[in-house]
Amino acid sequence: MNLTPEPLVYGLSSPGRVGVVLPESDVPVAPVPAWLERDSLPLPELDELTTVRHFTRLSQKNFSIDTNFYPLGSCTMKYNPKANEAAAAHPSWRNLHPYAGESMSQGALELVFRLQEILAEIGGFKAVSLQPAAGAHGELAGVFMIRKYHLERGDTRRVKILIPDSAHGTNPASCTMAGLEAVTIPSNAEGGVDLEALKAALGPELAGIMITNPNTLGLFERNIEEICRLVHESGGLVYGDGANMNAVTGVFRPGDAGIDVMHFNLHKTFSTPHGGGGPGVGMVAANATLAEFLPGPLVVKKGDVFALETPPKSIGRMKAFYGNFAVLVRAYAYVRMLGAEGLRRLAENAVLNANYLKVLVEKRWKVKYGRRCMHEFVASGDIAEGVHTLDVAKRLIDYGFHPPTIYFPLIVPEAVMIEPTETESKETLDAFAAVLDRIADEARDNPALLHDAPTTTPIGRLDEVAAARCPVLCYRA
Amino acid sequence: MPFVPNTDADRAAMLAAIGAGSVEELFADVPAARRFPKLELPKALSELEILRELDALAKKNEATDSGAWFVGGGAYSHFVPAMVPALAGRGEFLTAYTPYQAEVSQGTLQAIFEYQSMAAALFGVETVNASHYDGATALAEAVLMALHAVSGRPRVMIPAALHPEYREVLATYLEAFEVEVVEWKGSAAEAAKGVDARTACFVVQWPDFEGEVHELSGVADAVHAAGALLLVHVDPIFAALAKSPGSLGADIVTAEGQALGNALYYGGPYLGMMGATAKLVRKMPGRIVGEAKDKTGRTGYVLTLSAREQHIRREKAVSNICSNQGLVMLQSTIYMAALGKHGLARVARLCWDKAHYAAAELGKLPGFKVVNRTFFKEFLVHTPVPAAELVAKLEKRGVHPGLALSRWHPERTHELLVAVTEMNTKEQIDLLARSLAEASK
Question: Which residues of B touch A457 (CB under 8 A)?
Fold first, then answer.
């Protein structure tokens, strides 16, 4: 980690410096009308090496999968194969215009078509749209589809979507954006959906349920088929949030169990890099009931030719063009390198790693739901008097580990949500568990070490309250 | 298997620690009848094999690196300096998550802050967020934001010449709400007089889908006098040349940032840009990074104003957005820093000059007429024969003259949308003019 303060790009600017030389113009100068032309453009002036050093140094102020164990629960921070990057860098993908005619984009269309087919097979669905750009975008597409399905049938009363209290915040937020009402369903003592509460919430206003399986506690919803049956009998539809699909590829096909529509995060399960926030792909898959509502266009095969086509009752477009195509290339490369056998092995090792780590961690730390977990588990960070999850998270940084997801899910107090993924070795898991053990000792013997952490980073804990009260959101000269 | 380090010995040791007899046993919660389905998938390939296969597939495309391309329509071929992908591709940026843990994410956070700063300068607004999925979703979310910010006003005015796919995305996003979407035509200043007490926002695409750069003087005054917001969707390269939308009174500015250092990639990943006046910041969707201090007074950067967001507010959040286009934003940050004050203005100027040269040359051809009064890098031409026929004929010679508007408007058969950037040489433009002349004889 680079500890030297790096000035803002404006601080490196010097009048007259040029980073990129452009060609001389080979055409006459055309006048720009005075009413239109800007006086000056307040951007910095840097030479190339300064630019390169600046962004290289900034990169050195990050933890990343390439440099550190990153057990961020529900985010599936697995290794992102370099072959994916090589595959996506091909100039015939990079320089392909989205409005190159279908005859000139057959390679791209074929790749999209193959990936649609592969992902439909993995999930047990009829059709797939690769258009949504992120998980929340796929969720939004899915709830739009559910809404439209009911309206197409003339059923205008169905406005309620049930959401377990362990769900990601994007689920209820997506409902609001689709004009639907989110209704929270409590979890039972086992960490699953409370079936009695579910039954009480059914009725003629039910549009559907959004269910994450495995859920954010890292537990497989044992009653998944019963939940789907109850919701269907009540006239509702089932949305599957695929954020945690990494636990069950090749193990369980959600479509087989009665899920009607679902998103997968290709940037989690299918190993495309998170890029410091994106881009992802939240592809959305549907069974026969909802396939014709998918956002378009999809790629279809007509004889030997691939073409774009929008399903008949489509909810419409979720974004311009066809999706985050370069991310699709990466996911395709990955899934082809794994094959059916590899997909099952990845889930098996993800679950094995999580259970192994859980056994090591729960020797000292509370794990609220003690049964065997899937790809992740949730511990509590209040290991000693006056010590909180935040302190544990920050102390982990000093030992070179990225903290797990903290304070989520909301139903576990002081939550520490740990997802090791299948690409970590036993040695890494052992080392991480040993550090947690040591932090538990420190919490008891010298809690100041936790409260003052981290001390090995370019900055210490920031005053977020002050930052939000008087926000400084851009550089001021 | 690839990417899994566990050996059989590791697995055995781990299972013993867990107290499980087999890995299968760990999946006991999965309904037995549904467990371990047989997947019908193509057989696994090695890295060598998959790269070979993808190379063959990629080569079935005809990309902009061969032939002369004048195709735009919201995605533009611009020069991307080598340092942009080289730096953004560093593993420390590429394989980091959303920067929730500020102390180990200062690289990403400072880069976002620099992006916000440079994009705000380009747009002439106080605040820019850390990205949306693309220009179309940025615009759709900006309209939703305007509807919330000026509540009780169910009407939105959009240009008839808005990008047709943006229009579709907006329709998807507004589907569940009772919003009246009115299309305006003609001069923006004249149309803005139609803003009334029921209107939440007036949208301008600058330049619009047909390349026209509307004069904006008087527009903001009319919109604001009626109590509505002015939303300008701008081409960010154009913004380097033109007066900033903010200086002309825009309350919200959105853009498609692909042109700022990002490859075409068959339509994505691109960059949805959104900025606004300081007054609107707490209504704005998306991640925002702010400056902060630690206990010892050191300056750092942190995700801020998160009380707007879904992970805090759930169903009451201003948007559901979580993952965004972080890496694309980073590429645009590096691009803006590398090109800088003079370079970006130079790119804009090359586009302007070359597009005007091309328009002049095409305007000389018999039967061809340039429609636009003011344009930047894209313009609309009336053609003497159906534009789709010209496109089909010229493509065979490796000249891609632009987009036939009939693709979106079947009745507009004789209109061709031509895009010219710094990537096009005079030689290519002359070839375009010659080829169009021959093909329309």
Answer: 103-104, 106
Question: In angstroms, rounded to a whole number, what is the distance separating the alpha carbons of residues B429 and A26?
Answer: 11
Q: Give the pair of three-digit tokens for residue B7.
A: 């050996």
Angle, helices A48-59/B106-123, rounded to nearest 10 degrees? 130
Predicted TM-score (pTM) of the model is 0.98
A96 burial type by CB count under 10 A (0-12 exposed, 13-18 middle, 19+ buried): buried
A317/B1 touch (CB, cutoff 8 Å), yes or no = no
Using alpha carbons, list the distances in angstroms from residue B253 to A81, A222, A292, A304, B273.
37, 48, 35, 44, 8
Quote the pLDDT of residue B151: 86
pLDDT confidence band for B312 (50 / 70 / 90) = confident
User: What share of chain B in percent tops pLDDT 70?
Assistant: 100
Residues forming a β-bridge with B417: B380, B403
Average pLDDT of the segment spanning A99-125: 97
Q: How far apart are the first and last CA of chain B?
A: 62
Smallest CA–CA distance, residue B6 to chain A, in Å, is 6
Look at residue A52 and give its three-state secondary structure: helix
Can you point out the beta strands (E) in B67-146?
Answer: 68-69, 127-128
Instruction: Respond yes or no on whether ipTM tops 0.90.
Output: yes
Both tokens of B29, joined, read 């919660």
A22:B422 CB<8 A: yes
Phi, psi (degrees; rounded to nearest 5) at B375: -145, 170
Relative orientation angle of helices A325-361 and B8-18, to the nearest 10 degrees:
50
What are the tens digits of pLDDT across the range B94-122?
999 999 999 999 999 999 999 999 999 99
* Contact A156/B at CB under 8 A: no
CATH no. for B68-79+342-439: 3.90.1150.10
At the topology level, CATH places domain B83-336 in: Aspartate Aminotransferase; domain 2 (3.40.640)
Q: Are strands B229-234 and B199-206 parallel, antiparallel or unpaired?
A: parallel
Per-residue pLDDT of B12-56, as tens digits, reads: 999 999 999 999 999 999 999 999 999 999 999 999 999 999 999
Q: Which domains does chain A have, with CATH numbers?
A: 1-61 (no CATH), 84-338 (3.40.640.10), 342-451 (3.90.1150.10)
d(Cα B19, Cα B9) in Å, to the nearest integer? Answer: 15
Contact (Cβ atoms closer than 8 angstroms) between residue A146 and residue A261:
yes
pLDDT of B1 over the 80 cut: no
How does residue B309 score in pLDDT terms, banded at 50, 70 and 90? confident
pLDDT in tens, B369-396: 999 999 999 999 999 999 999 999 999 9
